[in-house]
Amino acid sequence: MGDSESLSFEFSLPEQLLNRIGLNNIRSKKEEDRQTSLDFFRLNADNSPNSFNVHDSLSEAELAFGTEANALKCFKKYLEINPNNENAKSIIAKLQNKQFSKSITMTSN
After folding, report:
1. Adjacent-strand bridge partners of 10
2. Which fold is adopted by the domain 14-96?
3. Average of per-residue pLDDT across 85-102
4. Is 63 exposed, middle or buried (0-12, 13-18, 19+ CB in 10 A)?
């Protein structure tokens, strides 16, 4: 959660803003920007734990970075929130069977 001591209160950055920053960073040509994208997606998931959009982006980012164990955990959380998502079900099955190829492209939501 973002906070500001000078304002003496805690606040969360808007979900859409954090998601947009994460998406922009993951598409960047600068490696340091790409690496920080996961930080933004993870912060967003902490701030918005019941948002299927946030967990979708985080799941895809984890997968894009090859952190398959984290991706599996994130896709399972995403499916809890959005249980009818067939794509998430398919990716979970592939990850559990170790049949996933790392050819994923982050899309705008």
Report:
1. 3
2. 1.25.40
3. 85
4. buried
